[in-house]
Amino acid sequence: MRALRQSDTVEGAAVAKLLKRGEIKINISDKILLAPQGGAMPFASNEMIIYRNYAGTPKQAAGLVAHEAEHFLQNLTPALYANGSSALKAELAAYGVQRRVDSSFFLRTDHEALEYILKSPLYPQVTQSVADSLLQSGINYTKRLR
Ligand SMILES: [Zn+2]
């Protein structure tokens, strides 16, 4: 909570407010995952999972919480998330919030996030052709991708 506020960002303050009001909840899990996954936001839930193993510093944990909170606000459904294009937009937005809250986050641009999403086993629905069509579609943030 403190790290969220200390990030001095609109996003960090918004997430801290959601937590304070009880609109979202955090479940810390000690489960050790094989894939590098710091958190999860189950569909139709307000309770995110943060994996302690990947939480890192308070700042990094705040970034993870902000990422999952962004997914909460996106109201994702299994069908929407199974769609590569929708999933890619959702993840780019979530990684964007994460790096603004956590200035130490390693994915510093949408382009870096896109490359990471394409390589990660977590997002099999996001293929190179999905990425290419998003880049060509002229949606707002695609301009920053190149
Ligand atoms: Zn995500």
Topology:
Layout: H1 2-6, H2 10-20, E1 25-29, E2 39-40, E3 47-51, H3 52-55, H4 58-74, H5 78-82, H6 84-101, H7 110-119, H8 128-136, H9 142-145
Parallel strand pairs: 1-3
Antiparallel strand pairs: 2-3
Helix pairs in contact: 2-4, 4-6, 6-7
The structure holds zinc ion (ZN).
Gyration radius over CA: 15 Å
Question: What is the terminal-to-terminal distance?
Answer: 34 Å
Strand content: 5-15%
Estimated helix fraction:
55-70%
Number of strands: 3
Number of domains: 1
**Biggest beta sheet attributes:** 3 strands, mixed
- Specify the overall morphology: globular
Give the names of the bound compounds.
zinc ion
Give the count of helical stretches.
Answer: 9
Low-confidence stretches: 142-146
Helix and strand sequence: HHEEEHHHHHHH
Category by helix and strand content: mainly alpha
Q: What's the arrangement of strands in the largest beta sheet?
A: 1-3-2
**Please, what is the average pLDDT?**
91
